[in-house]
Amino acid sequence: MADEQSFSAAAKAELSASVPEQPCCRRMELAGLLRAIGRVELHGSGRVALSLSTDSAPVSRKVIRLLRAVSAVEYKVMVMRRRKLRKNLVYRIYIPPQPGAGELLSLAGFIDERGTLTEWAEPPELANDHCRRAYLRGTFLGSGWVAAPEKQHHLELSTAATEAADALGQMLFSYGIAARLAVRRDVLILYVKEADQIIRFLGLIGAHQALLRYEEVRVLKEMKNRVNRQVNAELANVAKQADAAARQVEAIERLRDAGVLPSLSAPLRELASLRLAYPDASLKELGELCRPPVSKSGAAHRMRQLMALSDSLL
Q: What is the pTM for the complete model shown?
C-alpha cells in the first residue's frame, strides 16, 4: 500500500471477496456497480444492451458473481489492453439485448416505472439502511478511489448524471458524510477530504481492513505531529531562554562597568555573579546555586531588580 492506487485497489479487492447474504443487498450492490461503470446501448425497436468496463480484475469477478446471484441474463466477458496511458488490462462484461437486460436497467435506475430512459429513478430498496450501504459499496467498487492515508486524506466517487450525483450526495449526508461536488471532464465527482468521514465511509461499505490501516496511519501521524509540536515548543523555549540570558549578561556587565555592583545588596551581587559565571543556566538553576538556595520566582525577582537598575543607566 505504498501509494494511492495500491491502497484503493486493496480496498476494492477486500470488498470484492464476498457477496452479501441478503438478496436485496446483492441487488443494490449490483445497482451501484451498474450506475458506476455501466453504459446503456440502444439497438433499435426498444432493445437495449448493457456494457460494464473496469480495470480491476477483482471487481470484474464481483460483477459476474452478482449477476449470477441476481439475474439469469446471458453475458460475455472480454479482456482488452488499453492503447494509451498505462496500457493496463480492461475487463468488459457485455450483456446483449434480452428480456432480463431491461430489469437490470430498472434495478440501477436507468429507466423509470414506465420503462423510459431517465437520469435517475431511485430503487425503492434504498429506503433500507443495509441496502444503501450495499449501493455505496457497489458505487465505490465501480467508480470510487481513496488515497493512501500516508499521502493525503481524499476519497472520490464519480457519476455522469446530475440527479444520480444528488442522490449519492444525500445518501452520504444521511451518514454524516458531507461530500463536495466537482466537475472533471464532464464527470461529476463527489469528494471528501476529512479523515474521520473517510474512515466512516470505509466502515459503512464494509472495508474493515482498509479502515484499520487508515486508523493505524492516522494515529501514527497524530503521534508524529504531537512529538514535532513538543520539540518545536522546547526549541522555542530554549531560544527564548538563551535570548533572555544574553540580555541579562549584557545588563549585569553594564552595571559592572559602571562600578555599581559593589554597592548592591548581597543577594543581588550573588545573583549577578552567578549569571556572569553561568551565562547558559536557567533562572531556576541560578536560584539553586544561591546560598541559601532560592526559588525560581525569587531568582526572577532579583533579576528584575538588576535589569531595572541597568536600564536606569541608559
A: 0.73
